[in-house]
Amino acid sequence: MRDNDSIQAPDLSRRGFLQGTLLGTLSLAVGANGVIGVIGLAHADDDAPKKYGADSMPGGTVSDPLVFVSIGADGTVTIVAHRAEMGTGVRTSLPMVVADEMEANWDRVKVVQAEANETRYGNQNVDGSRSVRHFLMPMRRVGAAARQMLEAAAAARWAVPVGEVRAQRHEVVHLPTGRRLPYGELAADAAKQPVPAEGTLKLKTPDQFRYIGKDRVRMVDLEAIGKGQATYGMDVRLPNMVYAVVARPPVVGGKARAVRAEKALAVPGVLKVVEIPPFSGAPAFQPLGGVAVVARNTWAAMQGRAALEIDWDDGPNAGYDSAAYRRTLEVAARKPGKVVRNEGDAPAAWNNSAEAERYAAEYYVPHLAHASMEPPVATVRVSGKSAEVWTSIQNPVAAQTAVAKRLKLEPKDVRVNVLLLGGGFGRKSKPDFVDEAAIVAQAMPRTPVKLVWTREDDIHHDYLHTVSVERIEAVVGKDGRPQTWLHRSAAPTIGSLFTQGAKGQQLFESGMSAINMPYRIPNVRVETAEVEAHARIGWFRSVANIPHAFAAQCFIAELAHRAGKDHKQFALDLIGPARKIDPRTMADTWNYTESPERYPYDTGRLRDVIEAAARGARWGRKLPRGHGLGLAFCYSFMSYTATVVEVAVNDKGEVQVVAVDMAMDCGPQINPERIRAQMEGGAIMGLSLALTSEISFEKGRVKQSNFHDYEVLRHHASPRVIRTHLVNGSHDTPPGGVGEPPVPPVAPALCNAIFAATGKRIRSLPVRTVA
């Protein structure tokens, strides 16, 4: 990569943008509230529905500007991707929506990656499966506006009514005469046309779509990725670049008492040793601290780090032991906790029932590491009163903010070039590794510093998925149906990142498959235990849905077996007929910042995905000895998913996943190929978490170090077949998320299948073998 190879967005000035012209091109932007050509900015946040109301969020969006599209004189349509690509296909899916609405030919579309710029692009944080959910309608609007302005320009040039012209396949046609003008010839004239007002904007109908909902769109980065030509953070090469690795405290909250660097500095190629201060207060996105070794190449830096002599003070988490902590969580889950949902009186029903009518179970999910294929990496160059960053980051604005604060610069003086991500899963929304690189680069003025995390660094120092004990208690009637549902969750909270000493899950965490329980049960209570965090707890693909759905979906299967009923039918009977539940009847707010009016809990859609997954797996068929089918389902990130897993368990207790059937209803299916790809990836990741993955602690230290002991699913253990079933797809339904929803049902479906095959219940992950 050359020094000037960084990807950047078109430099659209405020004045030039508002005039709609830039060097003879048509250039447009649109806010998510549908207003085209206005740079009024309101950022997405957890209070968006309260602040802006449902009417300001068409298509389930929040008020996040800005989306840019331009047409050059040569007919090239340039679309700015303002969110990072980490395998979800967002650099294809959103631009193709614009291209479809404006009748552009995909082979004439150029996609450029936006740098970090919150003023220009609004929220750029790729998390929460929000990208299509929040930007489908803005992208459609800006595309439709461009199409109508091109049509108006052609009509004016021909002096004909605009109703006689139509944009078709990158040109405008005069229908009565067949005359044609290509987009490039019309771009300058179109830029002089007024931007269509909201009431005059004409969106396509679904039957007119050329790309939306189709499988024939070429993925923007596919060829470059396939040829090894794509640029990830690890690929950055700049003139005079040096390399750095960091020796970090082995225990979170620890620090170096004394550092002896003489041997490290004597290693050939080592240039400098830079101390990184420990974080203070809550961890947030601060570096852990430690000592960086800078060298002419990564190998020399690693050898220098190995030669450092550091006396560590392990700090307040020195005694953290995950086995002992599990017992702490189990005790907490058996006691009353903070109530986050309460209907009827579940505790009283439990205490007053006969012993034979009670049923309870506890479920355990350990800490999990993100373990994305590309570990964290960032390159930073500090030059006087400015800095430039090249990195693979989910949250570029957070990286920009962190570097600006560290270097005492204005954010506008820190340029963050966003590169492709080799996986993220939530880890790369936390820019601690970029901040580390900035600290080292400050000590190496005008020299690009590439700071690399090894796989061991990544496993040892991750922002981990929370460890959890989930306890569910039910009083069961004579018909086998639960009369009470008491769910207690004991898990450290993500809130501990930002508030020192924060205990117990926050409402948004409880709202992930604990509060939002769809069954018709008269007495429902959900509680959380106030337990401390002893590690950095962070967002992880599907977040708290993983432990909550694991417990709830296994428990329903156990109740069905106890009642002597088919699991699928038992669950459907408990869900009841199709109805739309107002989320606010479950708790004050848990709907992940979305409008409760636009996104009710639709049990009809949930029923449909259950039926689709079961139909795909041929639920109820006779299976060979040692085989079993298991079902689980979940509503998360405004989408509905259901999974059926078929397993074969041999006489040694070894589990082989035979097949996975996954059904999803995410509303309108913008890019079906990418949806299926994310479902398949979610199946593999979910199986990996269920079968092999675990982070454990001893004396405050992570015991695992690489893929030999923090295992991800190997090829031989992967299912022979993954079948995906897309349900609904109606454009009358607001869009849901896709990246995260496939994961939560996989582990409980697997464990339910193991029980069907062997009669043995699995309540603790990972499974590994069936004893």
From TrEMBL:
Q: Which PROSITE patterns match?
A: TAT (PS51318)
User: SMART domains recorded for this chain?
Assistant: Ald_Xan_dh_C
Q: Name one GO molecular function term.
A: oxidoreductase activity
Highest taxon of source: Bacteria
**Cross-referenced Gene3D superfamilies:** Aldehyde oxidase/xanthine dehydrogenase, a/b hammerhead, Aldehyde oxidase/xanthine dehydrogenase, molybdopterin binding domain
**Organism whose genome encodes this protein:** Cupriavidus cauae
Q: Which PANTHER family match?
A: ALDEHYDE DEHYDROGENASE (PTHR47495), BLR6219 PROTEIN (PTHR47495:SF3)
Q: What name does UniProt use for this protein?
A: Xanthine dehydrogenase family protein molybdopterin-binding subunit
- Residues crossing the lipid bilayer are 21-42
